[in-house]
């Protein structure tokens, strides 16, 4: 009976709504945008039994948010403009923004060696890794996850001290939470603050992201969506070493759309921060079909869907690949599809934007559904709307 009630609640709240927070969105969306997003998202939710989704679209520079379903099957609470989703590895793009801001502020340089900031690693191979390699998954071979037996930063430093590269830094890409997570630690240290405090107290407010958190305040817990495993069991992310730095951000579709627009220089930011945001689009390595930026991944636009599927495939995450350094690094380009995927055990996310077209998309769901479906959905929506962008 409870399951029937939950399904009924999902059906009731599957009705599409477009939200327009004063600072983030622009009135009622044109019918074509609403219909295009609806036609793509509804079948995905049904096929994957997703309880709730929020999809944000920037079309012709204007942001629109569409909410579907429920944030919690147990309560039937609908997804709203205030619903918080776990971003998973999309969080890394915000960490990269802080790193870039630290460099613009003279607190570090991406050419610096890791050991300059982590004295315990001086004289060890990890201490010789340039910071840029930590931000591009190219330090020389690290696992995807922090090992289960590491429970604090002291144990992490011992692990990194014993680490031995399987490839020379800057020659091989192995996607890893450890590399960008350690870079996040270093960046916070360069500011003399705790990472979560720095992000929540400085970066998020400076970006105008007023509903974005690493540690969700008690007063906002009612807005935190319930995640669901592939089997449908309720789950949320657990704390862990480097979780905050690598995959720990929770945000709304509206806030993430603001971040997308900031990445296309469409919102007013302090000059140094704006330069830092755009600098994260600098290309450092060619890896398969894509160019590896500071966490962001980009493709020359227009781009075939298959290239996006290949670049965002499980193989690119789970298996290493040789890279070709770009010397000098590739300057940020407006003629690019720039993207990042993100997942936790109970949430799935995808963000992409095309600066030259003044278009972008944010897909947030309270279930981890296949990456190729997220990428294909974004591609279908943006391709269909490209005629609306001028």
Number of domains: 2
Q: What top-tier CATH class of the largest domain fits best?
A: Alpha Beta
Strand content: 15-25%
Radius of gyration: 20 Å
General shape:
globular
> How many E-type strands?
16
**N- to C-terminal separation?**
51 Å
CATH topology type of the largest domain:
Beta-lactamase
Uncertain residue ranges: 1-24
| H and E order | HEHEEEHHHEHHEEHEHHEEEHHEEEEEH
Strands ordered across the widest β-sheet: 1-3-2-16-15-14-11-10-9-13
Largest sheet: 10 strands, antiparallel
Class derived from helix and strand content: alpha+beta
**What is the name of the CATH architecture of the largest domain?**
3-Layer(aba) Sandwich
Helix tally equals 13
EC number: 3.5.2.6
Keywords: Antibiotic resistance, Hydrolase, Signal
Enzyme class: hydrolase
Domain Beta-lactamase-related: 37-384
Please explain how this structure is put together:
By secondary structure, this protein is an alpha+beta fold. It folds into two domains: 2-89 and 197-232 and 249-388, Beta-lactamase; 94-193, no CATH class. It has 13 helices and 16 strands. It has helices spanning 2-12, 31-48, 91-104, 131-134, 153-162, 177-191, 195-207, 243-247, 253-262, 271-279, 305-311, 314-318, 371-385, and strands spanning 17-19, 52-59, 62-69, 85-86, 172-173, 227-228, 234-235, 250-251, 283-287, 290-292, 297-300, 321-322, 324-330, 336-344, 347-354, 359-365. The strands form four sheets. A ten-stranded antiparallel sheet has the order 1-3-2-16-15-14-11-10-9-13, sandwiched between helices. It has a two-stranded antiparallel ribbon with strand order 4-8. A two-stranded antiparallel ribbon has the order 5-12. The chain is globular and about 60 Å long. The model is unreliable at 1-24 (pLDDT under 50). It catalyses: a beta-lactam + H2O = a substituted beta-amino acid. Residues 1-25 form the signal peptide. Keywords: Antibiotic resistance, Hydrolase, Signal. Residues 37-384 form the Beta-lactamase-related domain.
């Amino acid at each position: 009976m409870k399951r029937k009630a939950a399904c009924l609640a999902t059906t009731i709240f599957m009705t599409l709504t477009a939200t327009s927070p004063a600072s983030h969105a622009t009135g009622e969306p044109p019918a074509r945008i609403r219909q295009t997003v609806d036609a793509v998202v509804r079948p995905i939710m049904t096929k994957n039994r997703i309880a709730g989704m929020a999809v944000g679209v920037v079309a012709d520079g204007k942001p629109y948010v569409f909410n579907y379903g429920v944030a919690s099957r147990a309560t039937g609470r609908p997804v709203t403009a205030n619903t918080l989703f776990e971003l998973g590895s999309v969080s890394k793009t915000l960490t990269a923004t802080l790193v870039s801001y630290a460099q613009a502020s003279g607190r570090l340089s991406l050419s610096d060696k890791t050991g300059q900031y982590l004295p315990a690693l001086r004289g060890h191979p990890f201490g010789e890794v340039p910071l840029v390699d930590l931000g591009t998954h190219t330090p020389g071979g690290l696992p995807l996850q922090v090992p289960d037996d590491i429970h604090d930063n002291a144990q992490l430093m011992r692990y990194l001290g014993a680490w031995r590269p399987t490839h020379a830094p800057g020659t091989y890409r192995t996607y890893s939470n450890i590399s960008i997570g350690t870079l996040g630690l270093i960046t916070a240290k360069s500011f003399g603050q705790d990472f979560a405090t720095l992000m929540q107290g400085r970066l998020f407010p400076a970006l105008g992201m007023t509903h974005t958190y690493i540690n969700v305040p008690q007063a906002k817990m009612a807005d935190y969506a319930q995640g669901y495993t592939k089997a449908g069991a309720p789950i949320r992310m657990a704390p862990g070493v480097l979780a905050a730095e690598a995959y720990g951000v929770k945000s709304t579709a509206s806030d993430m759309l603001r971040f997308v627009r900031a990445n296309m220089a469409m919102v007013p930011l302090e000059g140094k921060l704006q330069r830092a945001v755009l600098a994260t689009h600098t290309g450092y390595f060619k890896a398969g079909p894509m160019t590896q930026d500071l966490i962001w991944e980009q493709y020359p636009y227009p781009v075939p869907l298959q290239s996006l599927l290949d670049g965002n495939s499980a193989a690119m995450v789970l298996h290493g690949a040789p890279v070709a350094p770009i010397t000098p690094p590739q300057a940020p380009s407006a003629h690019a599809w720039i993207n990042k995927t993100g997942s936790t055990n109970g949430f799935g996310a995808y963000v992409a934007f095309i600066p030259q077209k003044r278009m972008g998309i944010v897909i947030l769901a309270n279930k981890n559904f296949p990456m190729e479906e997220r990428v294909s959905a974004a591609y279908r929506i943006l391709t269909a709307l490209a005629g609306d962008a001028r």
